[in-house]
Amino acid sequence: MVASNVDDPDSDALIFEEQRQQQQDTSSSSSSSSSSLLSSAVSSILASGHAPAEISYRIPLKDIDASAHAHFLPGAEPAADNSARSPPSSNRQSQDLLTPGAYATGRLRRKTSLAGAPGMLHTDGPWWTDRTGRTLMLRGVNVSGSAKLPTRPFMPSHVREGFFEDADVSFVGRPFPLDEADEHFGRLRRWGFNFLRFNVAWEALEHAGPGVYDYEYMDYVVQILVKAKQYGFRVFIDPHQDVWSRFTGGSGAPGWTLRAAGLDATQFNASYAAIVHNTYHDPANFPKMIWATNYFKLACATMFTLFFGGATFAPSLMVEDTDGKRVNIQDYLQSHYCKAFTELANRIQMCPGLEDEVVIGYDTLNEPSPGWIGVHDLSTFPESQDLKHGNTPTPFQTLLLGMGFGTEVETWDLSWAGPHKTGSTYLNPKGAKAWLPLQSNSDRKWECVWAEHGVWDPLTRRLLKKDYFARHPVTGQKINFLADFWRVFVHRVTQHIRTVHRRAVIFVEPPVNEAPPIWDEKKGDPTYRIAYAPHWYDGMTLINKRFNRWFNVDVIGYKRGKYLAVPFAIKFGEYGIRQCFKSQIEMLRRDGFTSLGQHPCIMGEIGIPYDMDDRKAYATGDYSAQVHAMDVNIRALEANLINFTLWTYVADNSNEWGDGWNGEDLSIFCRPLPRGHSSGSESGEHSIDHDTPLMESPAPAPEAPDAPPHVGIFVLPAEFSGDPQPADTQSVQSRNRHWRRSGGGAGSASSRRRPGSVESGSESSSSSAGPSSAEGTLADDSADLDVGGRGLLAFARPYPVLTPGTPVYLNFDMASSLFTYVFSHPRSRGPAALVLVPVATSSSAVSVVDPAQQQPHGLSLAKFLPRARRFSTLPASTLLRGEGEEEESGGEHHHHHHHRHRHQRREQQQQQMLLGMSDPAGEVEIYVPRVHYPRADAVEVWVSEGQVRWEMADQRLHWRCGCFDAPADDAAAADGTATASRRSLHLSLGHAGSGGGVVEHTIVMRRKRAGQPPLLDVGLRRRREAAAERAEEMGKLAAENER
């Protein structure tokens, strides 16, 4: 357990940590003793008068009597006998510490962690943290866009045969067959991903009928997740949908949901209730992005209106449920949706080691739509209808068309300036109806549910209540979709999922580009273990399938009222476009903080179309346009320090049909075709040489099995003085650094150890990225895995995976391969301590430490000690006084005493420092992709302080700044800037607080090229530039807040 803001390091909080550890080490521990310990620990902490800012319980949940401690478990129902189960009144405050209501501000930050699996992630304000307390940056991809489509029968969106046979389908094999999982997970791991948004369609779970679950598919999902665990991935489940269902032109809901609402999917095409690729007359020329216009057509708009607001707007639409009871359509649809994904959660829980360790949580619903809820005038286009393309009816016109009345509607097209009207056309001349015929025993008058509720009159074809969906039909109050309907749905999803997965992170996803309502815990809004998961795409590129290098539009800024008119939102030039993207993502992130509170933010979807410029890259192999577009997107994410999952990775993507869904082609992977092979189109227009983008240099070939690994610890100080000392006579001297591959021959201990492996009970510092050579997994050091990667240079980029503190600044310039990262942590209160700073004149000199020996080659460690005054690396209780303190105690009578013990102290400091170097809690782990840094001798690294160790086989750079937070006295501990644990020198580095100030550390890395300025100059300049950029951003933010 870690307790912040305590006066005494030997407080009850730390005593409880030792008691807990002793109890876990004792095999005879019982559930009752664990439960008693949990209660007594909280009580003792409160009784001591301390107010811990964070409490991390690591007692397994199975050892806790949930009924006896329901008040400790967020979301748990109270025990039936409250008088018997409630803790003493003096301890009532303990309930607030462990529930969403106890959110601490200022120095006290809320760390929402409860008992869980060893690999469980925690939320610490806006950051993710692992069990060592380090900040974890999540980078991943959606798997997969193909999950929208059945595999049996094989049903991509351009296939018509068997389309309406919706009950007898299977999604087993989505996102990819189980026997291909090693290849795909190995590739994704090699590309630096550590997180997956796992797409699951409701239809995949419950296609056969309400309450009839496809357990074969669920068991397949469990097997895929087990395989993902072998590669170190964490996952959150995405209940995926687009425009409601495959039968309304998208994906998601089963076909029986439409029939329950009285709709006939076989007539959607003829009645223009939806435009569906599978039934389109020319599937090969399906208009780009036209599928999204279905959100405003009859079928999709009706279903979402009923799903979120059926009880309000269609109270008479009752459906017989599986238990024989008649319920309103809203409850019917939502209950089956929630139960289906709860059943999946239950299936996942049945497999040990998946819940919390792999599957960390669930999205609420992908890109929810309000339907017509909130529309003020059904006779005109809704204000939210930004996309108009093809035949574009108003809501009332789509009601007429659905009832078989021929209607003239406007036609629109897309251009660089956005949608524009092109004319009009007459639709549905044959009178096709989108509604099922009424049954003979029905007491309804009209097939159309909205005519039945008096919105319009089919006899006169008149609109009776144009603002029907803008006000409550009974009370007349104005309707707010997000506050009145969507948030209630989020409550329901959360409650269902957490009946099974108690610690599930709920990824709160509002409609695209919309800000969620202000969260209020008193109204039942979940605040325990939640994350904000918006989506963002560059609309101009997505719709036009062309990246405009000249200008773009700040859409989010315009929607948020930042500009008086659209022309003011246009941004020109490379710099303007980058700032435009950065600003929009920053606004979305701020929406989450303002509305939901300080919780992690992850961009659930962001990506680019790879078939831009009329698929030019497929013929030429030149993906420079795609690389540039993706780079601009990801740099905007990095500038805001946002976690993200790219859209998408499709294992069976093809150049002809893209992702296999509605003409989209956003997959970062496409299996290459042999040289000269046709793209698959009938005309053979595009001859494909290779799908892989042209890279600056090929990845290195795998080494022989007996070759020692590329592992070394580089000591890279900011400045040096004196003469350079060679690290080893066998070292290779280069212009800007001294580097040597560490380790002995093939039989040495260091060469036998696999990078990232566990030795002598120590933990791997690469735990976040998965094992580098775990049994049963595909090695990720093969360049063959890169084949098929599209725009690889843009998305396989360096980033800090784990940080012992708070990320402050992140930037990667792809053209120069210049990587800059700054992080901070509370300033140490301890005395000066050991840091390896060799005496040298060259600012780029490097000394290499052998990982096996943990000693510098050819150098005495004592030579480093005179400069050991830069920062504190170890707890104050384990450090001897610095030189300044020795002199203060001085006098001649102390001189010989200090001289006699000097060597002893230095040996003790060396041992303690080396112990600290093996503890991953104080180490920054950086992913270093081979596509940018193929060889160690082609890379230069500069750090402001500390030591660097590179594991090439695992594409990881490990950097230790050396600043372990350890209070030197009671006053330092009381100020709340540091927290410490007594467990094997492990120090929990908290994020920057307000007390005592913070210290920042910088790393700069680049690929070595001729004619470059010294890296020291670059590093210092980048550090100044980073500080200036942050100051500028803070100024802009303050100015906006004032406005």
Entry summary:
This protein is an alpha+beta fold.
Can you lay out the helices and strands and say which pair or pack?
Elements: H1 12-25, H2 31-47, H3 82-85, H4 93-97, E1 111-112, E2 122-124, E3 127-129, E4 135-136, E5 139-143, H5 181-190, E6 195-201, H6 202-206, H7 215-230, E7 234-240, H8 256-260, H9 268-271, H10 298-313, E8 318-320, E9 326-328, H11 329-349, E10 359-363, E11 390-392, H12 395-402, E12 407-415, E13 418-427, H13 449-452, E14 456-457, E15 462-463, H14 481-498, E16 505-508, E17 530-532, H15 539-544, E18 551-553, H16 555-559, E19 570-572, H17 573-596, E20 602-603, H18 612-620, H19 624-639, E21 643-646, E22 677-678, E23 687-688, E24 711-715, E25 732-733, E26 738-739, H20 749-752, H21 792-795, E27 799-803, E28 806-813, E29 818-826, E30 847-850, E31 855-856, H22 883-888, H23 892-917, E32 924-927, E33 939-943, E34 947-951, E35 956-960, H24 970-974, E36 998-1007, H25 1015-1042
Parallel strand pairs: 5-6, 5-21, 6-7, 7-10, 10-16, 16-17, 20-21
Antiparallel strand pairs: 1-2, 2-3, 3-4, 4-27, 8-9, 11-12, 12-13, 14-15, 18-19, 22-23, 24-30, 24-34, 25-26, 27-32, 28-29, 29-36, 30-31, 32-35, 33-36, 34-35
Helix pairs in contact: 1-2, 10-11, 11-14, 17-19
